[in-house]
UniProtKB/TrEMBL annotation:
<dbReference type="InterPro" id="IPR024185">
    <property type="entry name" value="FTHF_cligase-like_sf"/>
</dbReference>
<dbReference type="InterPro" id="IPR037171">
    <property type="entry name" value="NagB/RpiA_transferase-like"/>
</dbReference>
<dbReference type="InterPro" id="IPR003741">
    <property type="entry name" value="LUD_dom"/>
</dbReference>
<dbReference type="Pfam" id="PF02589">
    <property type="entry name" value="LUD_dom"/>
</dbReference>
<protein>
    <submittedName>
        <fullName>LUD domain-containing protein</fullName>
    </submittedName>
</protein>
<feature type="domain" description="LUD">
    <location>
        <begin position="106"/>
        <end position="201"/>
    </location>
</feature>
Amino acid sequence: MSSRDRILSRIRSAVAGAPEVEIPRGYRTSGPQAGRVELFAERVRDYRAIVHVVPESEVAATVAMALSGRGARRVVVPDGLPEEWLAASDLDRLRDDPPLGPADLDAADGVITGCAVGIAETGTIVLDAGPGQGRRGLTLLPDYHLCVVGAGQVASSVPEAVARLDPARPLTWISGPSATSDIELNRVEGVHGPRTLEVVIAEPAS
């Protein structure tokens, strides 16, 4: 018998005959809806990401401005990305068909994607490899990630976001640019993913 089996056996013996206890699970499943887009933008900025909150009609111009500001021309464009987002941009589009190799992705000036959901209370963006997002590697290897988030995609809380997601899909949770700290708390960005995250939040016309 292994140590694990002995420990579990002792636990079973100790609780044998104990009455069943009902554990209340009144978890909060949603948050306030008012101001969730503003909170999302604030929390994303807290992670040192660049954030633009614009009307849907200005997404293409904002995307073009963001890419031009970085001098990004060779940009990875996943299948299914809305064409209107790139209408004002002059790009050398890198398609992932056939799949781009690590060297190609690392040499790209950046990647532009949509998302599955945004989370206001944590400033997190979730990708699920759906249309306009591509496979996970596309957003981990380029040094710059430009992500467009629709205001309607912003959930107020984590439980609300989880309820919108399919757990069978490959989920990537992004909270700001990739960053880590050593034992002396010296922050280093770009170790596990993009060094720069830029987010365009598209609000519907009022």
